[in-house]
């Protein structure tokens, strides 16, 4: 019984391997992948603040106006500037105000959870203990919200496929 099961699993594994090799993508044109990623990036983030590092390690930040075949068009200090995107593999989106609101909400929920836990755990807690636990809950809620939501997003626009 066990031998038959192993034999069938082996056949199924070889069959899957054979078809994955037969039907798998033989070659990927990285320039085509990059063009698709740039087009999607343009459609999704036009009008938003972006940041990237140029080939000479200069950090550029501005509002994305357009993406041409060779350049990013950014609005920097209300003037359009062109930057080559040929050697730029990653673009970063700084956190926005909505992310800060979510972080503040987590902070408030942490304080409320600390207060509720103290009131439930102890019949008549001292005011100092309630204040301490509420403050610790607020701080922990802030750190959770900050680490989860208030961070820079990294967007890959390279032509490399990652497995």
How would you characterize the overall build of this protein?
The chain has 163 residues and is of the alpha+beta class. It has 2 domains: 67 residues, SH3 type barrels; 52 residues, no CATH class. The chain contains 4 helices and 6 strands, in the order ααβββββααβ. The strands form 2 sheets. A 4-stranded antiparallel sheet has the order 1-2-3-4. Strands 5-6 form a two-stranded antiparallel sheet. Helix 3 runs antiparallel to helix 4. The longest helix has 25 residues.
Give the key terms.
SH3 type barrels; 6 strands; alpha+beta; 2 domains; 163 residues; 4 helices; two-stranded antiparallel sheet
- Largest sheet, spatial ordering of strands: 1-2-3-4
N-to-C SSE series?
A: HHEEEEEHHE
Mean pLDDT: 85
Q: Kindly provide the radius of gyration, computed on alpha-carbon positions and rounded to a whole number of angstroms.
A: 26 Å
Coarse morphology: flat
Alpha plus pi helix count = 4
Describe the secondary-structure layout.
Blueprint: H1 2-23, H2 30-45, E1 49-53, E2 59-67, E3 71-76, E4 79-84, E5 90-93, H3 97-121, H4 127-148, E6 153-156
Antiparallel strand pairs: 1-2, 2-3, 3-4, 5-6
Helix pairs in contact: 3-4
């Amino acid at each position: 019984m066990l031998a038959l099961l192993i034999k069938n699993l082996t056949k199924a594994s070889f069959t899957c391997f054979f078809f994955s090799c037969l039907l798998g993508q033989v070659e990927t044109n990285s320039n085509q992948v990059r063009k698709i990623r740039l087009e999607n990036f343009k459609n999704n983030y036009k009008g938003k603040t972006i940041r990237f590092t140029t080939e000479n390690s200069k950090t550029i930040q501005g509002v994305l106006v357009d993406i041409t075949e060779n350049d990013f068009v950014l609005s920097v200090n209300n003037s359009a500037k062109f930057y080559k995107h040929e050697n730029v593999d990653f673009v970063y989106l700084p956190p926005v105000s909505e992310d800060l609101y979510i972080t503040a909400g987590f902070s408030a929920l942490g304080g409320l959870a600390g207060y509720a836990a103290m009131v439930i755990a102890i019949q008549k807690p001292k005011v100092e203990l309630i204040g301490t636990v509420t403050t610790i809950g607020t701080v922990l809620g802030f750190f959770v919200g900050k680490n989860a939501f208030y961070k820079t997003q990294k967007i890959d626009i390279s032509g490399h496929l990652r497995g």
